[in-house]
């Protein structure tokens, strides 16, 4: 039995004149079964006939609900391992028929097609399949065909049909049924928009995956077209500035960070909070937690202090010492579980956000004493070697590039000076180059004892970044009561080559004894000569880390 037909034409016209559409029959076919049984039970209690497929039908039947199989509508069994089950006029005719069109109604009567007034479909978990690293064939098999077709058909015919693509919309449909006896046009339009957004995002994920597969096989090829999509995670109060609107969307390959984080406490995150927290957490992920605890402090998307230490609290104090003025109101990212000792130190100054893979109960209780301080736990660290794409909007278009996943530990460092760096200098050089990757260009980073001691960011000339970083180091030394800045005996990293020797000379004057840079300038010989004249060591990485 597959349920009753619609009410007579007069009753139907009465409903339609008020933009209310009754539901006599619902087709349910879902991968995510969250809330499915209670929703279906509520529909059945209102006399709505249920039709379903495969695993969804099994779940409903096991819950004691009367549910027809989609084959009762089509006259065909599921076939080809479930690839073909709903692609049939018996389904799509019931969805797409315009209810007050006499010709459509005549076609339905002639071919025995029953109207479907509610389509509840969510799609095969393609994105999750890709995220868990499944093989090519498994990913292809998780590309849904019939689901998107039904969703798009129902959304197109939203004048008569409601479509639900997410369990979060179940309550909306039931509220309409309780209050109006059917779905309102406003609800159906909203659901249609959500439906098309979902299929667009889904198709975008598939297209992006194919592009990534192709790029691995042909690195010189650029995809002929790109699709970007996301699901609304949160509407934000405003954007970078109060006069700008903003929202946070989740989409693309799964990657631990702000999109996976649980907020344990604190105020709602702002646009700038999210942007800075992402920058901080990506930066701290450069530091392997198995090697040492590490802390990154970020302000306006730039690191203002980074350090490794024997403990998290030691790393935090070393990072803070780099630029305590800028750290006020900043973001603190940690590469290990936040512990109580580190938590006590962090709450000593005003901090906007703390983000870490996890937090101990004692640490969370300490943070809770600062009710506005946001504490995020992500469940893991992003892989600095991981792939992915970065997108920047331009007037009338987009720039798309692969993620900067070059890691200094994988680079063949070339000593280009007469003096080679010492083992201690090499450790600090690698540390500094990890940091400079995450500083806005032109970027200069001074480091000593696995901690930044001066950071120059975002200047139009490299020599100015070197000067600013040294100036900040002098200010920090004065504030700490030190006799001289920590740039004395430090190393320096540059995100790109020195176009002239002046930037290097500034670093030497600040006290740097070793330098790491990509090399590649037409004046490399002049820069190397300046290093040799000062008796400092310099290594080339061959890899540039511009960041804009």
| Spatial separation of the terminal alpha carbons | 63 Å
Give the neighbour order of strands across the main sheet: 10-15-14-13-11-12
Mean pLDDT: 89
Shape: elongated
Q: Considering DSSP H and I runs of 4 or more, what fraction of the residues is helical?
A: 25-40%
Describe the structure.
This protein is α/β, with parallel strands linked by helices. It is 39% helix and 19% strand. Strands 10-15-14-13-11-12 form a six-stranded mixed β-sheet, with helices on both faces. The model is unreliable at 3-17 (pLDDT under 50). It starts with 8 loop residues before the first helix and ends in an 8-residue tail after the last strand.
What is this structure's SSE topology?
Blueprint: H1 9-17, E1 20-21, E2 25-30, H2 36-45, E3 49-52, H3 54-62, E4 68-69, H4 71-74, H5 89-96, H6 102-111, E5 118-122, H7 126-131, H8 136-141, H9 146-156, E6 162-164, H10 170-180, E7 183-184, H11 185-217, E8 231-236, E9 246-250, E10 262-265, H12 271-284, E11 294-299, E12 302-308, H13 312-322, H14 324-327, E13 330-334, H15 340-346, E14 351-356, H16 361-367, E15 374-377, E16 389-394, E17 397-402, E18 414-415, H17 423-436, E19 444-447, E20 452-456, H18 462-480, E21 491-494, H19 502-510, E22 514-517, H20 524-534, E23 537-540
Parallel strand pairs: 2-3, 2-5, 3-4, 5-6, 13-14, 14-15, 21-22, 22-23
Antiparallel strand pairs: 1-7, 8-9, 10-15, 11-12, 11-13, 16-17, 18-23, 19-20, 19-21
Protein traits:
548 residues, Cytidine Deaminase, domain 2, alpha/beta, 19% strand, 3 domains, 39% helix, elongated, disordered N terminus, Rossmann fold
């Amino acid at each position: 039995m597959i349920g009753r037909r619609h009410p007579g034409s007069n009753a139907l016209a009465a409903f339609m004149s008020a933009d209310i559409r009754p539901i006599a029959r619902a087709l349910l076919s879902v991968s995510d079964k969250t809330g499915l049984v209670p929703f279906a039970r509520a529909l059945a209690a209102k006399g709505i006939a249920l039709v379903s497929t495969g695993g969804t039908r099994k779940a409903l039947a096991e819950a004691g609900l009367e549910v027809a199989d989609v084959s009762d509508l089509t006259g065909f069994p599921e076939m080809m391992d479930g690839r073909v089950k709903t692609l049939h006029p018996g389904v799509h005719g019931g969805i797409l028929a315009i209810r007050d069109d006499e010709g459509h109604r005549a076609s339905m009567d002639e071919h025995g097609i029953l109207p479907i007034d509610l389509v509840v479909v969510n799609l095969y978990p393609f994105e999750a399949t890709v995220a868990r690293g499944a093989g090519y064939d498994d990913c292809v098999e998780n590309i849904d065909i019939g689901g998107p077709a039904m969703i798009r058909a129902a959304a197109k015919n939203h004048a008569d049909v409601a479509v639900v693509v997410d369990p979060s919309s179940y309550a909306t449909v039931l509220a309409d049924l309780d209050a109006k006896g059917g779905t309102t046009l406003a609800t159906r339009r909203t659901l249609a928009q959500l439906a098309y957004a979902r299929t667009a995002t889904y198709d975008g994920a598939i297209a992006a995956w194919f592009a990534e597969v192709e790029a691995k096989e042909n690195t010189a090829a650029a995809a002929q077209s790109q699709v970007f999509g996301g699901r609304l995670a949160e509407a934000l109060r405003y954007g970078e500035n109060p006069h700008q609107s903003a929202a946070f969307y989740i989409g693309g390959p799964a990657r631990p960070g702000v999109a996976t984080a649980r907020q344990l406490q604190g105020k709602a995150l702002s646009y700038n909070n999210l942007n800075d927290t992402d920058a901080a957490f990506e930066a701290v992920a450069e530091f392997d937690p198995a090697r040492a605890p590490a802390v990154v402090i970020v302000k306006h998307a730039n690191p203002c202090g980074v350090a490794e230490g024997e403990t998290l609290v030691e790393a935090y104090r070393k990072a803070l010492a780099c630029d305590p003025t800028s750290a006020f109101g900043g973001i603190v990212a940690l590469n290990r579980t936040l512990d109580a000792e580190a938590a006590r130190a962090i709450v000593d100054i005003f901090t906007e956000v703390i983000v870490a893979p996890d937090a101990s109960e004692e640490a969370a209780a300490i943070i809770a004493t600062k009710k506005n301080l946001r504490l995020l736990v992500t469940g893991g660290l992003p892989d600095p070697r991981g792939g992915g794409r970065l997108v920047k909007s331009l007037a009338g278009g987009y720039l798309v590039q692969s993620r900067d996943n070059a890691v200094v530990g994988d680079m063949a460092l070339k000593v280009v000076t007469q003096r080679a760096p010492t083992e201690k200098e090499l450790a600090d050089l690698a540390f500094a180059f990890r940091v400079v990757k995450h500083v806005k260009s032109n970027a200069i980073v001074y480091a000593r004892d696995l901690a930044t001691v001066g950071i120059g960011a975002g200047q139009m000339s490299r020599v100015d970044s070197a000067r600013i970083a040294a100036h900040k180091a002098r200010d920090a030394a004065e504030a700490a009561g030190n006799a001289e800045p920590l740039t004395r005996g430090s190393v320096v990293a540059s995100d790109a080559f020195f176009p002239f020797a002046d930037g290097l000379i500034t670093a030497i004057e600040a006290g740097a004894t070793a330098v790491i840079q990509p090399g590649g300038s037409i004046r490399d010989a002049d820069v190397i000569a300046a290093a040799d004249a000062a008796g400092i060591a310099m290594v080339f990485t061959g890899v540039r880390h511009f960041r804009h």
